[in-house]
Specification:
This protein is mostly helical. It is built from 8 helices and no strands.
């Protein structure tokens, strides 16, 4: 029997494990690692697709993502999002679409954290599919290793 862990680095194994974690738990772990072992947290962030990484996605990819997700999921997912994520998303939307998004956010009212995380998870699943199809990339010049 072949050992699936043979020849793999610890960072690779940790990346695989974290790719299956809930986004909130993953972000929390990355924050904690950032305080203790920043070089490990930085390497993991390069390898993982988190909601915060949407700030670094290319415009063409964001536009394709927006076409494939529901307005309700987008409105939920953006609640509490960082300024860079908000700017990248809004920068790839028309004024009319931004107005519709603002109306949807108002219509939804306050949301539970687990609802927001679920919406983000659905958004990230579409983003992963686009990345695998090479229809979404990142604006950084570094080689990306998204799992």
């Amino acid at each position: 029997m072949v050992d699936p862990w043979a020849g793999r680095k610890g960072i690779d194994i940790l990346t695989d494990i974290m790719a299956h974690m809930k986004p909130g738990a993953c972000e929390s772990l990355l924050k904690n690692l950032g305080g203790q072992v920043p070089h490990v947290a930085t390497e993991l962030r390069k390898r993982l697709l988190t909601f915060e990484r949407l700030a670094d996605c290319d415009g063409r990819g964001i536009q394709l993502l927006l076409k494939q997700i529901s307005l309700a999921d987008l409105a939920l997912g953006l609640k509490g999002a960082s300024q860079p994520v908000l700017q990248n998303i809004a920068g790839n939307m028309s004024k009319r679409a931004i107005g519709e998004l603002q109306e949807e956010i108002k219509r939804q009212g306050p949301s539970k954290p687990n609802e927001i995380e679920s919406a983000r998870d659905r958004i990230l699943q579409v983003a992963r599919d686009l990345i695998l199809k090479k229809q979404m990339g990142f604006t950084s010049n570094e080689e990306e290793m998204i799992t």
